Every structure is written in C-alpha cells, then in structure tokens.
Amino acid sequence: MKNALGNIMQQAQKMQEDLKKAQEELNAMQVMGESGGGLVTILMTGKREARKVTIDPSLLGDDKDMLEDLVAAAINDAVNKVAKMKKEKMADVTAGLPLPPGFQLPF
C-alpha cells in the first residue's frame, strides 16, 4: 500500500512537471490570425499577446468601419488558433488521464 501511494505521488509530480513544460512551450509559440483573405494579420503568442499587426495599404482608405471589423476578426482568429493549439497540446500531455468531461486545466 505504501509503495502504491509512492507511485501515485511520483506520477502526480511527473504530470505536474509535464504540464509546466507544456505551458512554457505554449507561451513561447506564436500563431498568425488573419482576415480579409490575409489583408489584415495579427501575430499572437500563446499567452494571447499581440506581437505584430499588419494592415494592407489598400485598406487605409475612407472605410474605417470595415477596417475595424477586419482587425477584430483577425484578433478573434488568432485567439481561436491559440485556444485550439492549447487544447491539442494539453490533450497530448493528459492522454490517458481519467479527467471528467469538461474539466479545464488552469491555463
């Protein structure tokens, strides 16, 4: 019994280390969100920090509302890509763990 508890503790510690490593890798990754067929792009980190915004010069006209919508859409695209990337990475790390449906890890 004591040995089984020791094994469980070792597994928990390894999982914690794996999760920390995965979080660090995710934070360092970057994704490109885009809208308007690539006319607006947003470079975003895994921490959901925007690093670069690129707007095609053809959009710098009188239609401010359209440009604002395209920037918002590009940001949303990048945020969704980060979320998908994190979900896939965490699925790899937690593979085989009996987590309840809908359980979210804290990141």
Automatic annotation (TrEMBL):
InterPro entries: YbaB-like_sf, YbaB/EbfC. Residues 5-32 form a coiled coil. Pfam families: YbaB_DNA_bd. It is found in: Cytoplasm, Nucleoid. Keywords: Coiled coil, Cytoplasm, DNA-binding. One of its GO terms (cellular component) is bacterial nucleoid. GO terms for molecular function: DNA binding. Binds to DNA and alters its conformation. May be involved in regulation of gene expression, nucleoid organization and DNA protection. HAMAP family: DNA_YbaB_EbfC (MF_00274). Belongs to the YbaB/EbfC family. Homodimer. This is Nucleoid-associated protein B0F87_105276. It comes from Methylobacter tundripaludum.
